[in-house]
Amino acid sequence: MPRKPVPVNIAEKLAGFSELWSQKTVAVLNDYEVKLAKLHGEFVWHSHEDTDELFLVISGRLTIQLRDGDVVLDPGELFVVPRGVEHCPLADEETAILLFEPTGTMNTGDAGGPMTKAAELVSS
């Protein structure tokens, strides 16, 4: 028997975890994952050679540091980092974001290192 379609409640999903810099996959659209994450502090400089990366701020404030100038995002704002562009997310306060990127995209892109984590699937 087919499962009843259920909408994703972003607030509920965010309330279900507290780990920082850990992406949680909440939906899949074709070959893309819709992920939530909580951020605080500075991440690592990295790039994604094969894909763009979409950041949408849900709460808090996110600075996406770029080599040629920063982009500051408030709640309800989004920014797409083009493929191959080196960037470093920075959140001076706890910030909740939604990411949209191809399935299997690593959070640290080409940088690797101790902050590398595969996205975890969050159950419905």
State the main characteristics.
124 residues; mainly beta; Jelly Rolls; 8-stranded mixed beta sheet
Task: Outline the structure in words.
This protein is mainly beta. It has a single domain, classed as Jelly Rolls. It has one helix spanning 10-15, and strands at 24-29, 32-42, 53-59, 62-66, 71-73, 78-81, 87-102, 120-121. Strands 1, 2, 3, 4, 5, 6, 7 and 8 form an 8-stranded mixed β-sheet that branches. The longest helix has 6 residues, at 10-15. The two termini are 17 Å apart. 24% of the residues are buried.
CATH architecture: Sandwich
Helix content: under 10%
Query: What is the tally of helical segments?
Result: 1
Roughly how many Å is the radius of gyration? 14 Å
| Full CATH superfamily name | Jelly Rolls
Shape field: globular
User: Which regions contain 5 or more consecutive residues with pLDDT less than 50?
Assistant: none
Looking at the structure, the CATH topology is Jelly Rolls
State the name of the first-level CATH class. Mainly Beta
Describe the largest sheet.
8 strands, mixed
State which percent range the strand residues make up.
Answer: 35-45%
Termini separation (Å)?
A: 17 Å
Mean pLDDT: 88
Structural class of the helix and strand makeup?
A: mainly beta
How many domain units?
1
Series of H and E elements: HEEEEEEEE
How many strand elements?
Answer: 8
Protein name: Cupin domain-containing protein
Organism: Streptomyces durmitorensis
Domain Cupin type-2: 40-95
InterPro entries: Cupin_2, PKS_Associated_Protein, RmlC-like_jellyroll, RmlC_Cupin_sf
